[in-house]
Predict the structure of DUF8094 domain-containing protein.
Amino acid sequence: MRFIAAIVTFVIAFGMIAYGIAQRTILAEPDSITASTVVPNDATVSVISSKTLKALDGRQSVTIEGPGKVFAAYGRTEDVLAWVGKASYNRIGINSAKTALTSKLVTGTETKVPDPRGSDLWLDEYSRSKSLNFFVNVPDDISIVVVSDGTKPAPNHLTISWPLDNRTPWSGPLLVGGGLLLLIGIGIYLWALAHLRRSRGPRRKSPKMPKVPRQRGYKPRKTGAIAAKGGRRSTSRRMIAIVPILLVGSVALSGCSADLWPEFMTGGSSPSATPSPTATVPVGEKLQAPSVTLPQLKNIVARVSAVAAKADAAIDPELLKSRFEGPALELRRANYAIRKVDNTYKAPAAIPAGEVNVTLPQQSNTWPRTVFTVVTPTDKTVPPVALMLVQATPRSDFKVDYATEFEAGAKLPGGVAPANIGAPRLPDETKLFTLAPAKLALAYGDIIEKGPTSEFAKYFDLKNDALLTQIGFDKRKELQAKVPATAALTFANGNGPGENITLGSNNAGAIVTVYLNETFTVKPVEAGASVNPEGAVKSLSGITGTTKGTVAVYGDQLLFYLPPASSKNKIVLLGFATGLISAKELP
């Protein structure tokens, strides 16, 4: 019976081990499901919607193949479709059985699109030649755009794979249980062998035999061979015991993976996608999405910084046009013109590619879009730079409209909304604040001209205003005193051609950028007298002397915090950038 028990135990043990191994090999299910298609149309763009990407659970592996360049990017669905615009494109879907991708041509009026590489709309992008593979795990509102170069047909071989849960949670218990049962079977087998040896021989009493005559003793001859202790049968039995032990040990080690065990035995849970955090929206209120995400903004700032650094070094205004416009472009372009004549003239403040400390995107699903940010350089001795960036159309890049140095110690009262919520852009004539944004530039200009006696002085915090010490009332008096008696210096203020930009901040306040132009006119007051420009005016105008006089215009980019009308707080100048933007002879 002991041998029978051992044999039965061996059979069950090897059966459990064999089935546990089979679950991981010949009986294992596929680890992914794949759907693909060959796009029959020659449209230059293909769009894979989020519905298609999330047709099955799990991270998506996307493979795109084509004869030439292969480019893919993903972004918010509304941004992707806005970039596609009126161009014809292939809408990639999936069949009802979720076994194959489908393609439907959406006809448009355009057959070409711009080169999509480096667009500010993309959350991420990929580019290779002929074949491209990447992994994504997109939320519901994200789509993928597929392009070659914008003029040739989009790559036509598309494949998406989703992972399948092919875990075998009972293979581990089967392998380890089978191994333990095998050890038990070996124990029973050895027990049976031991019992058999003890019970070997006849059970009846053997008859007495006559005594054999005693022989004389002798010494056996020595031999070189030493017999193995226990004989061959003993050695073979030990080997029989060692092989299963090694087998069980290897099986036990192979069963350490969590995929081979039930969840209640590992204390874990099945892997699942982690949803992206979303902002809490008040009940009954639907907010538009922020213009950019923080990763997008970091890429945008890095690109702007690279363009500015290259243009500043080369003193090339044409390079600036791809990333600058409005007041920021006007000031830098004039600075370049002066520096080409006078290399000692101070260069404009660099746009650092440092840490993005403040991010306030406009809440907008349409264009133009605006975002405000403050960038801190890695060199802590250099002041932070505040940028107001605007994207005019889906296919254009964000450009710097305002670039101001942040005032030392300046703080945003109450702070700004989180980057994943953003803020609305408010109209110039809104009456929610101490002063309407449309009146802000000229009100500040009146303080520059009249000092503390200005009617607007009571609205502004003038104690910590560094700009007034440079261009304010007292400074203007000094400049007038330096003009020869044969000439007269007069001033005028006006709104610059830049657009006022107002973004709401916390505590019902606003972040506002405005553009003020200061005009300095120098005229002779005596017959035959002449005016001799100096410094930057001379370099920019090219005039060494004139009897007509000169007019110089200075551009002031101003960044303010504007408190709500109900607040007792004052308007604070957060940052500024000022410089000569034009100089010429009077007609």
User: Anything to note?
Assistant: The first helix runs from residue 2 to 24. Residues 362 and 447 are 31 Å apart (CA to CA). The chain has three domains: 1-29+166-196+235-267, 32-163, 294-585.
